Amino acid sequence: MANRFNANIDFDKALEEEIFISMDKIGLRLNNVTALKGKNSVEIDIRHPNCGGKRLCVSKIIPEVRRITGKHFVKMDTSCCIKGKDECWLKLREAHKFSIVTGIARKQKQTSSISGDNYSLIELKDGKFIMILSDGMGSGPRAAMESGMAVNLIEKFLTAGYDQNTALEAVNSLLLINSDDDNYATVDMTIINQYTGDVEFLKVGAVSTFIKYKDRVDIIRNSSLPAGIMDKIDVEFNRRKVGDGDFVVMITDGVLEANDKDLDKEKWLADIIYETDTRNPKKLADIIMEKCMEKSKGQLLDDMTVLVAKIWKSA
Q1: What is the C-alpha to C-alpha distance for residues 58 and 52, in angstroms, rounded to an integer?
Q2: How far apart are CA 280 and CA 102, in angstroms?
Q3: C-alpha to C-alpha distance for 190 and 238, rounded to whole angstroms
Q4: Domain 8-94 matches domain 98-313 at the CATH topology level
Q5: What is the model's pLDDT at position 183?
Q6: 8-94 CATH
Q7: Of 37, 100, 186, 227, which residue is most buried, by most CB within 10 angstroms?
Q8: Kind and range of the H or E element at 294?
Q9: If residue 49 lies in a helix (H) or strand (E), which one and from where to where?
Q10: Contact (CB, 8 A) for 224 and 235
């Protein structure tokens, strides 16, 4: 499993040297510079003599780093002018090009005391924003336990630095060990790169995901089996690109099952998403839920979860 750990980081010695030289030219002596170059971004650690509260980090260092690199940076951890210390420490991270706001709407099956759907939202240090949605078989406590177990395990693996395939394999193995033949969980993952706008969709038995662009709605479909059924997990993988103002809509199957009138349920939902005029992801999620309740006349046959992400340009 060790070789599945994400560690795509290199030292950028040329940038470190350039920062040293440039700061010296404007009269700033630095103690140390470390520049770490990841796949999509740069982190810079700068240590310099205590400036006595003159906030050189804001007035000189950050603007100069921006000039050198041509990129926007934000402060992370900062240790500045602490009594008894003769060194300031400034840590900079390249600013995300895109920011994400989410909205969620949920309803549980009328005969259930708890929803069998679970979800998680994670922002990783490498600039990836991850949405995880899992639907346990059926509804109620057992379904909630299985979907919750899947979501929690994926979250732990990803935040520890493992890749998504390793996380999904671990979930599949755990469900096989802990479940009987009639119990399983779907896994739906959307991974948005906040530096590039690239999106990865990983589906294990999950229903379709919808992307709302300015002029259309794309549907990401799936035909794989849920986790916990086969020894080898069946993952469907898709890539897309999103930009400023786009939406990603994830659902569990109860949303489509609320419509027992239309043959093409995905088109029905895609039309609702396209025709809803709002920039608010929570409002879009609520409107989708309202339309489902209208279609089913309030008689829910399954739990329903709608998870919406709005992407907007931040830098």
Answers
A1: 13
A2: 9
A3: 10
A4: no
A5: 67
A6: 3.30.980
A7: 227
A8: helix 281-296
A9: strand 42-49
A10: yes
Q: How far is CA 271 from the centre of its chain?
A: 25
Q: Is the pLDDT of residue 230 over 80?
A: no
Q: If you search the block for the tokens 């994670």, which residue do you land on? A: 122
What is the rounded CA–CA span in Å between residue 225 and residue 269?
23
Q: The domain at 98-313 falls in which architecture?
A: 4-Layer Sandwich (3.60)
Where exactly are the structural domains of the chain? 8-94, 98-313
Q: Are strands 217-220 and 98-107 parallel, antiparallel or unpaired?
A: unpaired
CB 44 within 8 A of CB 33: yes
- Record the tokens describing residue 209, joined without a space: 């995901």
Alpha carbons 81 and 180: distance in angstroms, whole number: 60
Please state, as a whole number, how many other Cβ atoms lie within 10 Å of the Cβ of residue 213: 15
Lookup: tokens for 24:
């010296």
Cβ pair 168, 225 in contact under 8 A:
no
Mean pLDDT of 118-141: 92
Give 144's contacts (C-beta < 8 A, 6+ positions apart). Answer: 114, 115, 116, 117, 118, 136
What is residue 6's predicted lDDT score, i.e. its pLDDT? Answer: 57
Alpha carbon distance 247, 266 (integer Å): 16
Q: Which residues contact 288 (CB under 8 A, 6 or more apart)?
A: 105, 249, 251, 255, 269, 272, 273, 276, 306, 308
Indicate whether 247 pLDDT > 80. Answer: yes
Alpha carbons 131 and 123: distance in angstroms, whole number: 9
What is the rounded CA–CA span in Å between residue 255 and residue 156?
28
Write out the two tokens for 65.
Answer: 């780093």
Residue 83 vs residues 31, 59, 262: alpha-carbon distances, Å = 18, 21, 69
